[in-house]
Amino acid sequence: MLLATVAAMVIGFVYYHPKVMGARWAAAIGHTEESMAKGPKPWVYPVLILCAFVTAWVLAGAGVLSLYFYGGSFFWNVLLTGWILFVGFTAARVVVHDAFDPRGFKVTVHTVLNEFLIITVMALIIGLWAPAGLGGGDFGFVTS
User: Fold this and answer.
1) Could you tell me the pTM of the whole model?
2) Terminus of the chain with fewer CB atoms < 10 Å: N or C?
3) CA atoms of 47 and 68, how far apart (whole Å)
């Protein structure tokens, strides 16, 4: 889960870099060069790290539950569960939230795409390291 947490932070750093999607996101959200120059408040990054860890932890737990419910491969259970949870809880809730945003859906695409990348990479990482007792020596491809 620690590697998945680090991956989420790296993806966010790259995604929101001005030369990737950061400049478009900043324009969509209404940031100016002055507001960006101030940087985030000191508590922001510790909270982001904690949230990334919680997401990885919940995804790993949901993957195990999915494996016990459906059987088959831990890897594919985590990946599909991650995507299902992303669509049902992340993307759907972001759309509902942004429907009331006076900016409209200008930021929605950025948020949803970033979160999709994070959930997918987290699922790939978690899926490759099956929890103890699930046959971890086979790169997470567990069959029952």
Assistant:
1) 0.85
2) C
3) 32
